[in-house]
Design a protein that fits this description.
- By secondary structure, this protein is an alpha+beta fold.
- It has one domain (about 30-180).
- The chain is about 30% helix and about 25% strand.
- The strands form 2 sheets. The chain has a 6-stranded mixed beta sheet. Strands 3-4 form a two-stranded antiparallel sheet.
- The chain is globular.
- The termini are far apart.
């Protein structure tokens, strides 16, 4: 006798966005240990370098210069930008546990842009380049890409604090209004 319960049931897709959690429970604010660094850089190499994300037929690229930062020495500068942030007081980049712990979120966020949880918007930056924002608002995390025709460049990712949150809400609403013309 056939088990009817398994017939005609569509296979459920996993909720990749809903499953996103920090990569490490014990990541120090001072920086990763060697095993954690190995795992984080491995994710970057797998998700960004070896298997580039393709958006509208354009492969995502990144800053391939080699970092001299003490934590990221010998690795790509794009990776440095993903796991560090500018220190407003001394102008140097310092390790950012929130960014680093979410390095594995970049690909799922970009690839699930059509999911209602991702707020996508574009904005021209102060140098005249169009930037694409993939904001996972409920998790306070954003991925930023820059259009450099014919390239699409990964700029950075970070945890969105309460001050930037209001700015991004405004930008998202402005973008949405431009893309959705009013009907008469």
């Amino acid at each position: 006798m056939r088990d009817v319960s398994i017939l005609n049931i569509e296979e459920e897709k996993p909720d990749l966005l809903g499953e996103l959690e920090d990569m490490f429970d014990d990541l120090s604010i001072d920086g990763p240990d060697s095993s954690q660094m190995y795992q984080m850089y491995g994710v970057f190499l797998k998700d960004i370098v070896r298997n580039p994300i393709v958006i509208n037929g354009i492969s995502l690229t990144f800053n391939r210069n080699i970092s001299k930062h003490p934590i990221c020495s010998g690795k790509f500068e794009a990776f440095e930008h993903i796991i560090t942030r500018d220190n407003k007081y001394n102008g140097k980049r310092q390790f950012d546990r929130e960014r680093a712990n979410k390095i594995h979120w970049i690909r799922p966020i970009i690839e699930n842009v059509s999911d209602a949880r991702i707020k996508y918007f574009e904005k021209i930056n102060d140098k005249g380049f169009n930037q694409q924002f993939y904001w996972f608002e409920s998790k306070n995390f954003i991925v930023i890409l820059r259009e450099l025709n014919p390239k699409l460049l990964l700029i950075t990712t970070y945890f969105v604090d309460k001050w930037k949150k209001e700015e991004y809400k405004t930008w998202f609403n402005e973008y949405r209004q431009k893309k959705t013309p009013l009907r008469k």
